[in-house]
Specification:
Distance between the termini of chain A: 26 Å
Number of strands of chain B: 0
Largest sheet of chain A: 6 strands, mixed
Strand content of chain A: 15-25%
Number of strands of chain A: 18
Number of helices of chain B: 15
Radius of gyration of chain B: 23 Å
Number of helices of chain A: 17
Largest sheet of chain B: none
Oligomer: heterodimer
Structural class of chain A: alpha+beta
Order of helices and strands of chain B: HHHHHHHHHHHHHHH
CATH superfamily of chain B: MetI-like
Strand order of the largest sheet of chain A: 12-16-11-15-13-14
CATH topology of chain B: MetI-like fold
Radius of gyration of chain A: 23 Å
Shape of chain B: globular
């Protein structure tokens, strides 16, 4: 078992140009969900949208597709050269490629890039930008001419460049946006490696090669078909029968073992730690979850250490961690975590305290519903585990498991008591990443619907802190505020990414995020 | 004439036990079906007393264990005892099956008899509406209802009940049309009885035979529909013990390494539906005078 994992890891580590890419062929891959609520990358947060739409779009910069796990190896996509910041790190001036065309034949200029980024950072009235809160440092975005885009910051921060390599930051046509800011919610029209060829809602999406793509020689594929399938076994069967070559998100260890046993050398596997985890969210606007004692009691019922040992055998989860990606120097140590509710090593003592808190809050024998997503790996598994953990303190939880669209809709409208959601980030950028725990007023895709001025104040200080040691202290304070003092949300086990794929799929490399490296331009088929 | 009637010997009153004994003698397969149904009912409704473990309690020390003395039918991927989940699943199946069949059957009975009795525009409207609902296969209709109202036990019952109503109504109506023309119904009308009294006292009892057969078959259909919806992720949700749900997720993923996760719930569904169908067929044979004479 170990040997093939090592082999796969070694193969994954080889540079992409070790083999000469062969052009041609159509890649069929699976997306582990139903279709997302819209097609707008600026608005959405689920891979169900990104894996379906990223191949159609360009971005300003991106993580190096040949080194996607890197936290600082950024390369240009639409720009011509990575800029050196000026004015003490306050100004980033990008030169934009000439001759790039949108799929409708119109010319892509710096004005399109600036308009797209302004829509993300300063969304106009009625437009929802999921990552608006990630860019509090941006003061202005200017486009003085057809080839230049300038980002002016309010303060220098190390978190800006990684945030700029956001794979969701699709470059849209300014002309289209000027006519209709909501056009991209229902339509696709980009400048990426593939042109839109059709979409059967919630079933499949298709793309064909863009012959005018600006990266020479790419894309290698003639086209792609992406098929939505929320059930893991459907995806496993599709790969086993070669109806699909892979799914990019990740599969459970059981699925990996099944496929490698059945297919031998016809399957290769890439694995990685994953900057992604489930988050348990009580809706603070719903009673009794407006009471911090009830929220804390629920957190204290959860045995994360015991759960990690067991669930990693059956699900795509592995590591116990706090708000920060466990592989980061800014992440909490085991000792630091153990002081937080939901992480106490003595689980019986923790549950006794939870029962006391519930009694004190008058919430004994609580019966509630938890909203969950109909994606088995790992949402339903983690949700089912949590339901049993809550049972141990006398709280009865039923699950309302719904497809991705209604799941997001219900969270966005606040129509739930408890929710199983996810915190999945891209480039490991701890200070920006923990911004997703900010109150809903600031981070629109936070569904705890809480207010916490102290939390916001700590976050502001963190953003301005350039000394990593001091930043680490602040991040602990922030973590304590979110998980303990406010008991706003509880991060559960962090994911572990296992991507089994047909061996003929080449050029793609796993990373710590299933959002990165998904435009398919560098993939080719060796058959 | 009247003297002859008075002199006729009274019909012998047969006890229920005798009727039951005769049914068992004449319908051995139906009796077997009835036994399966009784076992399922007893097991389902006394689950707390019979089940060896809590059906929703995870036991990570016993994940995907094969059948053993500790876990007679093995465990699933969460270490939950399959036997306990099947026992509690019988209750879910019975609740959904019986409720859907009874509510759907009685609603169809009232609609069918009412439609036949009143005739005219009421009959036309009720039957055309029935045509519309019956144009969709049961599972498709149930899927649509669940898609609108969401998953969960109550909504599953609703989803299964709605398509059953016109099916029952149509069969009952055809019998009720014959009954409507009987002299005793005319007599009741001539006596000035209201429509409700005529329908409930004089027509409904005379369409009970086809109605009971329909309701019996509905229980089996409803159990299958519930299992199908749960299997598709649209029925009851984890961790509620339900047979269809047990065939989803882990059962598929571990089919080659832990086949018992799929085999035992599948067997439970098969036995339950087989039992109900055998019993329903026997009921039909017993209640249908033409078949009874053969």
């Amino acid at each position: 078992m170990r040997s093939w994992i090592l082999t796969a890891a070694l193969l994954a580590g080889l540079p992409a140009h070790a083999e000469t890419p062969k052009p041609g062929g159509t890649l069929t891959y699976m997306i582990a969900a139903d279709g997302g609520p819209s097609l707008d990358g600026h608005k959405e947060t689920t891979y169900a949208v990104l894996h379906a739409t990223a191949p159609f779009y360009s971005t300003l910069i991106r993580v190096n597709p040949d080194n996607p796990s890197s936290t600082d190896d950024f390369v240009c996509d639409l720009c011509t050269e990575m800029p050196q910041p000026t004015d003490g790190g306050l100004i980033f001036r990008f030169k934009i490629r000439q001759g790039v065309k949108f799929h409708d034949g119109s010319r892509l200029t710096a004005h399109d890039v600036a308009a797209s980024w302004r829509r993300i950072v300063f969304p106009p009235e009625g437009v929802s930008s999921a990552r608006e809160a990630v860019y509090p440092m941006v003061d202005k975005i200017e486009d003085p001419d057809d080839t230049t885009v300038v980002f002016k910051l309010k303060y220098a921060t190390l978190s800006f460049l990684p945030a700029l390599a956001d794979p969701w930051a699709f470059i849209y046509s300014k002309a289209v946006l000027d006519k209709d800011q909501h056009y991209y919610e229902r339509n696709i029209m980009g400048s990426g490696p593939f042109k839109y060829a059709g979409y059967e809602i919630g079933q499949a999406i298709h793309g064909v090669r863009n012959p005018d793509y600006y990266h020479p020689g790419q894309p290698y594929l003639d086209g792609f078909n992406a098929i939505f399938a929320p059930k893991q076994q459907t995806r496993v069967d599709a790969i086993r029968g070669d109806r699909a070559a892979l799914e990019f998100r990740g599969m459970s260890p059981t699925a990996r073992d099944q496929l490698t046993k059945d297919l031998g050398d016809k399957i290769s596997v890439q694995e990685s730690d994953w900057n992604c985890g489930n988050v348990f969210t009580p809706n603070h606007k719903r009673k009794p979850f407006d009471d911090v004692r009830v929220r804390r009691a629920l957190f204290m019922a959860v045995d994360q250490w015991g759960g990690a040992q067991a669930l990693q055998k059956i699900a795509i989860v592995r590591t116990v961690g706090g708000l920060v990606f466990p592989g980061s120097p800014l992440a909490a140590t085991k000792d630091e975590l153990s002081r937080l509710p939901g992480f106490h090593p003595d689980i019986e003592k923790s549950r006794a305290e939870a029962r006391r808190l519930l009694k004190e809050a008058g919430a004994e024998g609580l019966t509630v519903e938890m909203l969950n997503r109909n994606v088995d790996q790992p949402y339903i598994i983690v949700g089912t585990w949590l339901v049993d953990e809550f049972r141990k303190i006398g709280v009865t939880v039923t699950q309302n498991i719904v497809p991705t669209g209604p799941w997001l809709d219900k969270m966005r409208s606040g129509d739930f008591q408890l929710a199983m959601e996810a915190n999945c980030q891209m480039v490991v950028n701890p200070i920006a990443d923990v911004g997703r725990y900010l109150p809903h007023d600031i981070y629109k895709e936070n569904f705890a619907y809480h207010d916490d001025a102290k939390q916001v104040e700590i976050y502001e200080r963190m953003l301005h802190e350039t000394d990593p040691t001091k930043a680490r202290v602040l991040i602990r304070e922030y973590e304590k505020q979110v998980i303990d003092v406010g008991a706003h949300q509880l991060p559960t086990l962090w994911f572990y990414r296992i991507v089994p794929m047909r061996s003929y799929v080449k050029g793609w490399k796993v990373s710590t995020s299933h959002y990165l490296n998904q435009n398919l331009a560098n993939i080719w088929l060796d058959r | 004439m009247s003297a002859t009637l008075i002199d006729d010997p009274p019909l012998p009153q047969r006890s229920y036990w005798k009727i039951f004994a005769r049914f068992c003698q004449q319908q051995p397969l139906g009796t077997f079906g009835l036994m399966l149904v009784i076992v399922m009912a007893v097991v389902g409704f006394s689950a707390e007393l019979i089940a060896p473990y809590n059906p929703t309690a995870n036991d990570f020390a016993a994940m995907t264990e094969p059948p053993s003395w500790q876990h007679l039918l093995g465990t699933d991927q969460f270490g939950r005892d399959l036997m306990s989940r099947i026992i509690y699943g019988a209750r879910t199946a019975l609740i959904v099956g019986l409720t859907s069949a009874i509510v759907g059957g009685f609603s169809g009975l009232i609609l069918g008899v009412g439609s036949a009795y009143f005739g005219g525009k009421i009959d036309l409207i009720v039957q055309r509406l029935s045509d519309i609902v019956m144009a969709f296969p049961l599972i498709i209709m149930a899927l649509a209802v669940v898609a609108i109202f969401g998953p969960g036990v109550q909504n599953v019952i609703l989803a299964i009940t709605i398509p059953l109503i016109p099916r029952c109504s149509r069969v009952v109506r055809s019998s009720a049309l014959t009954v409507r023309e009987m002299p005793y119904v005319d007599a009741a009308r001539a006596c000035g009885f209201g429509a409700t009294r005529i329908i409930l006292r004089h027509m409904v009892p005379n369409v009970m035979a086809p109605f009971l057969i329909m309701v019996t078959s509905f229980v089996g259909q409803a159990i299958l529909a519930e299992a199908s919806l749960s299997y598709l992720g649209l029925g009851v949700q984890e961790p509620v013990p339900a047979w269809g749900l047990m065939l989803q997720g882990g059962a598929e993923e571990y089919a080659s390494t832990a086949p018992w996760i799929a085999i035992f719930p599948g067997l439970a569904i098969m036995l339950a539906v087989l039992g109900i169908n055998l019993f329903g067929d026997a009921m039909r044979d017993a209640l249908d005078p033409k078949l009874r004479e053969r």
